[in-house]
Amino acid sequence: MPKKNVVLGVSGGIAVYKALDIVSQLVKKDVEVDVIMTKSATEFVTPLSFQSLSSNAVIVDMFKEPKHWEIQHISLAKKADIMLIAPATANIIGKIASGIADDMLSTTIMATKAKVIFAPAMNTNMYENPIVQNNIEKLKSYGYEFIEPASGRLACGDTGRGKLESTDLIVEHVMSELYPIKDLKGKRVLVTAGPTVSPIDPVRYITNRSTGRMGYAIAEEARDRGAEVTLITGPSNIKEPYNVDVIHVNTNEEMLSSVLSHYESSNIVIKSAAVADYKPRTYSEKKIKKGEGDLSITLERDNDILRFLGDKKKDQILVGFAAESNDLIENASLKMKKKNLDYIVANDITSKDTGFSSEDNKVIILTKDGEEISLGKMPKKSVAKELFNIINNKKR
Ligand code: CTP
Fold first, then answer.
1. Which among 248, 198, 239 is positioned nearest to 217, based on CA atoms?
2. Distance between CA atoms of 216 and 93, rounded to whole angstroms?
């Protein structure tokens, strides 16, 4: 089999030296790497270092290497199985988002039909600048992928998001794109995500802080592994994943009826939604006017959707989530039994840098056979990957 090829685009920032490790790891995994550097990247690390590790000529200038012209120009765009831009600066992201192709790297990105993955690294304020964020969103909408930068102390002394994600994770991501696991082919996966809302009157409602990130990541991972995926989601700001059947709901009742209509035909059901357990006993058709004194709203129990599914379970694999602030394992195991689940993903919501609105999660996955698998803090997409590895009994 011919080797897979990664074209690594290196743009100029202090994290350039980390890209050397990416080349080294990929080469060790028998991947062929061609490196394109921007001029400013060469100010940080010489092309010779990349050339030595990749055993391939490094391309910097479009017009200076006529000898290798044929191999280098558009042909690299054709040769690439994946293009990885690491580190990706605000500049290269901005150029591609604006359709500018004025050097070898931007030209190749624009010319390739391969998947392009950006791993940004820059100062926090730059990364959070709405112009950069808009460029990222725009590129995502065209199908470009991003490996979000990590948080931490940056070279400039600031602390915040903007550090190049760990090279191990970047390499893992690239390898899973090069050799995708299709172990869910032929399976139907049903995922719920986000909060539900319980209306009080036409303008007010009760809801919770779930963003839907975990569920969307699960739906994307199932899709990538070949499943036919339905995602039933409460209100969320996250972009709908492609090739997933997305159904939007608001209330507990709507989620229940939508889930039920897909339950029978599903093989794996993952309920990551933060479903409201209570709703106002009466919904006021008219906006409630304020009076002089206090106001009480009586809440009544709403459906426990997962318990309902557990009771009706045939041969579906049923996975629940347990968001706990104390006695994590004990409470999660109780929920698994009570709701007749096969797995429960338990997370401690008191942890500051994981959980609800974070990109990361730190969970323990419990199996009905009494196994406890602790996963370290990792991006939600990786949690999703590990979850399916466990369900499919893959080596972790
Ligand atoms: N769940 C559900 N319907 C509900 C409440 C929860 O389907 N009305 C599901 C969630 O999607 C999740 C699991 O049950 O997979 C656990 O949710 P959680 O809120 O942690 O547990 P509860 O059963 O509501 O228990 P408690 O709120 O008392 O901790």
1. 239
2. 24
- Averaged over 246-268, what is the pLDDT? 98
In a mutational test of the pocket of ligand 1, which residue from 192, 207, 257, 305 has the highest number of ligand atoms less than 8 Å from its CB? 305
User: What residues pair up with 379 in beta bridges, in sequence order?
Assistant: 360
Active site residue 265: no
User: In residues, how long is the chain?
Assistant: 396
Predicted pLDDT of residue 71: 55
Closest approach atom of ligand 1 to CA 277: 8
For 333-358, what is each residue's pLDDT tens digit?
Answer: 999 999 999 999 999 888 776 666 67
| Nearest Cα to Cα of residue 218 among 283, 143, 271, 170 | 271
Mean pLDDT of 161-169: 92
Residue 155 near residue 14, CB atoms below 8 Å:
yes
The answer to whether residues 97 and 91 touch, using CB atoms and an 8 Å cutoff, is no
What are the helix and strand counts (H, E) for the chain?
13, 21
* pLDDT value, residue 128: 95
Domains and CATH numbers, the chain: 5-178 (3.40.50.1950), 188-285+296-391 (3.40.50.10300)
Could you say which of 155, 156, 260, 288 is catalytic? 156
Q: How many CB atoms lie under 10 A from the CB of residue 69?
A: 11
Q: Which amino acid is at 145?
A: E
